[in-house]
Amino acid sequence: MKKKKYKKIKRINNAMRVRTLSIVALIAILFIGLVGRLVYFSVAKNKTYKKKVLAQQNYQSQTLPYKRGDILDRNGNTLATSQKLYSLVLEPKNILRTEQTQKNALNALTKYMNLDRDDLLEYLKDHKDSYYSVYKKDMKYSKVADLKDYLKSKDGKKVVGITFSEKYVRRYPNKSLASHLLGFVSDGSIGTTGIEQYYNSALIGVDGRKYTYLNEELEQDDSIVDPENGKTLVSTIDINIQKIAEDRLAKFEKKYGSKGSSILVMDPNNGEVLAMANSNTYDLENPRNDKALLSKYTQSQINGMSEKQKVKAFNEIWKNPIVSNSFEPGSTYKPFTVAGGLEEGILKGNETYYCKGYKQVGKHKIHCSHQEGHGNLTLSDSIAYSCNVALMDIAAKEGKNVFAKYQKDFNFGVKTGIDLPAEAETSGLLYSADEMTNVDLATSSFGQTFNCSMIQMASSFSSLVNGGYYYKPHVVKQTRDDSGNVLNNKNSELVKQTISADTSKKLRSYMKETVEKGTGKKAQIKGYSVGGKTGTAQKIPRSAKTYIVSFCGFAPVENPKVVVYVVIDEIQKDSQLNTGLAVEMARDVLKESLKDMNVPKTTK
């Protein structure tokens, strides 16, 4: 039997021992390097990688809206302003990033805005992927002040994901007061009608911007470009006189009604408009409310309107008839006819006339306002009793050239250039001397067969009574920056001299007689000398027998401080020929305006 042979086991030699130790050492070195690298990343590079992580959070830039400029009355009372409103904006993605960010945000929102925690958490989870979500809109500053202050504090800076967006909303403290004069704002920045439209470029500003970023200390920081606010406008309007005029119109409309009535109040010595009131007003903060249409349409008519028809209807409501509508002025024009004759020396002031109730002009019998005739009249009587026949005689004596010249000199037929949009164009509504027939001359002498607007008449009438100076009418007198510093004063602009001071003085005395003994007796005010002229104009078509009545009055006669012009289109519940209703309204507004302006009494 053979004996088994066993291999002899080799012992580890020195070479193998060195190789093994080298491998172990290499592994140890790699392990130590890995540990060192981990320590390096977790300690030395901690800020760098934290910055990278935080940089992944979405911080958006924010618009800082400008404030549209205010509109003030002449005494500093606010007619239009802009109110800042706040919306709460949440960043659910950032708020829900960790339990701590969530806790910080919820604690702040519940404590400083009294919001429900459960509702907030549910909302955040529903919008978990959003970096911008508006949670609550259009809040006043008082609602957000506590939270805004907290977010600026040391502890508040730890809160992420809560911001506020801002916007301005146009406010009119007096709602519908001076609605046609002021106008309103569409789409936040577009002035629509009135001062808002005409001065839109001055009232608007430039938005600012807020940029949020992480600074070198990994703290949230802001870079802000401040907004540039719009300019403040000081108007010529006296809010008290405006309220007086609108209140008087409202009472008249309630008692009598009309197709439309208006009152214009001016300072005759500088062209400043003190009040501009119309019977068809609307809420400036809600101009597209269908209720505004009820002043001209029935509810059934409104319900049946298409969108296009409704837009047209609103545009009619928003239109300022004092500036944008033209009409035949009627007998308020008669003093202008007399002014031309006096200024040219054709009239001396001692003339007499005989009225038998009509005047034959060619084939046409043109009647006087007093059908039975006035009989014998002086020149002043022709104004006081508003005699058409006497005025036709005066115009015939003047001739077409003189008559047309003074229409032009008094700025009839051209725009006044008032600082309001959509002024009526009347250039084609006057006869030139070449075009005028004898009948045209006769009827034009007492204010028929040509058109003017209320602002044209009042501006021209002011020059008639102030010594002969025609001022450009205007509704804004000063521009200020948003800190109240005066940037520009809009001085009165003297356009021309229409007549001499002597002619103006004679006309004031004639119109004083109108109030003392003539057609304007109801305009008398205790303690003041008052002058004025009534007007009745038959509308076209003449066959319709519809009328516009008016009165243009001023006081005191010796040194006029106020001109009040009242126009009523088609009285509804009384005779359409009742000029006395216009006279009474003018008297009431004159009386209160003189009181408001502290004009001393002139008579016992």
UniProtKB/TrEMBL annotation:
- One GO-annotated biological process of the protein: cell wall organization
State the family named in the UniProt similarity comment for this chain: Belongs to the transpeptidase family.
- Domain (Penicillin-binding protein transpeptidase) spans 262-589
Q: What is this protein called?
A: Cell division protein FtsI [Peptidoglycan synthetase]
Question: Which Pfam families does the entry mention?
Answer: PBP_dimer, Transpeptidase
Do you know which InterPro entries this protein is assigned to?
Answer: Beta-lactam/transpept, Beta-lactam/transpept-like, PBP_dimer, PBP_dimer_sf, PCN-bd_Tpept
What keywords would UniProt list here?
A: Cell cycle, Cell division, Glycosyltransferase, Membrane, Transferase, Transmembrane, Transmembrane helix
Q: Name one GO cellular component term.
A: plasma membrane
A GO term for molecular function: glycosyltransferase activity
Penicillin-binding protein dimerisation domain segment(s):
67-215
Q: Where in the cell is it found?
A: Membrane
Annotated membrane-spanning segments are: 21-43
Source species taxonomy: Bacteria, Bacillati, Bacillota, Clostridia, Lachnospirales
